[in-house]
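Reopening this one. Same input as before:
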Amino acid sequence: MLILAKAMLAMMIGFITSVIFGAILIPILKRIKVKQKVSIYLEKTHKSKDGTPTMGGLIFIVPTIISAIILLLMGKMNFGENIFIVLFVFISHAILGFMDDYLSIKRRNNEGLTEFQKLAGQLVISLVFFYIFMKTGNEPTINIHTLGINIDLGWLYGIFLLFILVASSNAVNLTDGLDGLAGGLSAIAFFALGIISWGAAYVSGSQDIAIFCFILIGSLIGFLFFNTYPAKVFMGDTGSLCLGATMASIAIITNHEITLIVIAGVFVIETLTAIIQMVGIMCFRKKIFLMAPLHHHFEKKGYDERDIVKAFWVVGFILATAAIGFGVWI
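Same output, byte for byte:
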């Protein structure tokens, strides 16, 4: 019961601070004209969204950091190496995404940081992650506990770590295309990661990571109060990059890198459809989907945006619960 109480309290703190902060931030974003420019490929279906405030990821980023600091100062959370890594990845990717959004707004287009600049930033963050991860006694291995598989990658684990962080952060970024889609799926994913973290007693500070997950879930639900259809604010790269990278960091620390593929199954599918579309156009000069990622394909087929989001949430919930069963119970 104590674990459940801690989880509910963390979610409540995150939710309340997020709603209050969102109510204050959105008018400020409107006043300083922090607006999203809709892609030319979506002008027919998303024209009404042009000019909606962006950088809304701050609505769940700032409250999550503040709530975590308060709980740390109160002694309800312990500040160890692993929670430091999670917070470092969360904050550093938020800063990277903020820079991307800022440049996009300044230039009045959707071109912020170049792909090389983003990758360079993610590389630096990954190197710091890998250094702290190894210095704190962690092993560079991939573990699949259920199947009894343990693969020691040695220095190659650093490249593997970079791949997971980059792939995960970009997957959430790609999925952030409909009102409430990425935010809702992320809340579901962190729910699964929170439960898995709480059960990972073999990891130092696992309960503190779990509490962080539940704070973030509450903050994301607060963000969805403003982000569901019709969205009053978009999370932008500020939010999407840090969410994906944080998912990856928690999966790595708890040795559930493979389980993450199931937890983030919808994000993975969205990314795969974008890759398949690109390969189809480059190699065969033919579109496989009407538009990629997959949520835009369904939009082009005439499905209502709200129905697509709800269907994706359901699939995400099914995959997350399956991952919990695989990662904790089985």
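So the earlier flakiness isn't reproducible anymore. For the record, Strands lie at 141-144, 149-152.
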